[in-house]
Amino acid sequence: MNTLSSSALLASSFTPSLNITTPSFSKSRTTPLFSVTNASITIQQQPKVALIRIGTRGSPLALAQAYETREKLIASHSELAEEGAIQIIIIKTTGDKILSQPLADIGGKGLFTKEIDEALLNGDIDIAVHSMKDVPTYLPDKTILPCNLPREDVRDAFISLNAKSLADLPPGSVIGSASLRRKSQILHRYPSLNVQDNFRGNVQTRLKKLSEGVVQATLLALAGLKRLNMTEHVSSTLSIDDMLPAVAQGAIGIACRSNDDKMAEYLASLNHEETKLAVVCERAFLQILDGSCRTPIAGYACRNEDGNCLFRGLVASPDGTRVLETSRIGPYAVEDMIEMGKDAGKELLSRAGPGFFTS
């Protein structure tokens, strides 16, 4: 974990090392078979009809996740290996359009999924690839989420040009973060630091702001940096004890229409059951607490060395002055894990008391 120079950070912040190209839409389903040019008729090749249309946001990280999904589908189903069999369609969401305000001020729920869900229900796409931490606890009617890909590292990464950890930052240092969860946990341990909570944009944008001195440090999900092959920017990695992750952090979810048996069959072949159960447990916890997007909430379920599920949950005040934590251990089985998540949520609701989630 080394500290990067400003020039090195600038150089790679503009171009992620993952080789992603913007999907071409020249092979549209509506492309004519014939075109007239200078009074002559040119016969064009009939376009390939995509077997699967993947809907995704357009950020480099979202595209990396969509391409990962495509590669796994191709590896599992030979008929999808043909050129044009899988099409990636970029959809701009509300969360992508409104960047001038903190997420908590513009709604929180469904900001990065609503338009993609609508495209799925309208039949414009066949499957939707989401970062699971962006997915509301209630799925839209007539959609299902039968697949989670294997989970990446759930930890948060600390990135700075002149410090190796949060503890190394001098008092008054500004940390950029769009996450109330991160802000509250940082301030709980380091109240002398200043957290800017509207530090928004994709990974490349945030690293550019860091290199320009807008902030002295930032925290990003290590999973995203790994998927973009950008871990060289990481100054240090925060332990789970120091920074409990967001619910479903590092997990990719893939949704389809509930009446689309073919897509459900494709997605079931990609599902990683251990990840899916962990996400189900964490989302059960979140569902109990889901009263306000202004409340910092963290939750993490994993398989411990005995093969059981270890769940840890946290709620906090945005200023970090009050942090409540709990944990559960039980069988690594879906019903048990759902009950563990719900029970942990109910405990923290009771301990927090009236007004904690609405203040």
Automatic annotation (TrEMBL):
Species, as recorded: Lupinus luteus (European yellow lupine)
Domain spans labelled Porphobilinogen deaminase C-terminal: 277-349
InterPro entries listed in its UniProt record: HemC (IPR000860), Porphobilin_deaminase_cofac_BS (IPR022419), Porphobilin_deaminase_N (IPR022417), Porphobilinogen_deaminase_C (IPR022418), Porphobilinogen_deaminase_C_sf (IPR036803)
Superkingdom, natural source: Eukaryota
Family annotation (Pfam families): Porphobil_deam (PF01379), Porphobil_deamC (PF03900)
Enzyme class per UniProt: transferase
GO process annotations (BP): chlorophyll biosynthetic process; heme biosynthetic process
General function of this protein: Tetrapolymerization of the monopyrrole PBG into the hydroxymethylbilane pre-uroporphyrinogen in several discrete steps.
Name the UniProt record assigns to this protein: Porphobilinogen deaminase, chloroplastic
Pathway: Porphyrin-containing compound metabolism; protoporphyrin-IX biosynthesis; coproporphyrinogen-III from 5-aminolevulinate: step 2/4; Porphyrin-containing compound metabolism; chlorophyll biosynthesis
NCBIfam families in alphabetical order: hemC
Porphobilinogen deaminase N-terminal domain span: 52-264
Keyword hit for Nucleotide-binding: no
Family: Belongs to the HMBS family.
One cellular component term from this protein's GO annotations in UniProt: chloroplast
Entry's EC annotation: 2.5.1.61
Subcellular location: Plastid, Chloroplast
HAMAP family: Porphobil_deam (MF_00260)
Cofactor needs: dipyrromethane
GO molecular function annotation: hydroxymethylbilane synthase activity
Keywords: Chlorophyll biosynthesis, Chloroplast, Plastid, Porphyrin biosynthesis, Transferase
Protein's UniProt keywords contain Chloroplast: yes
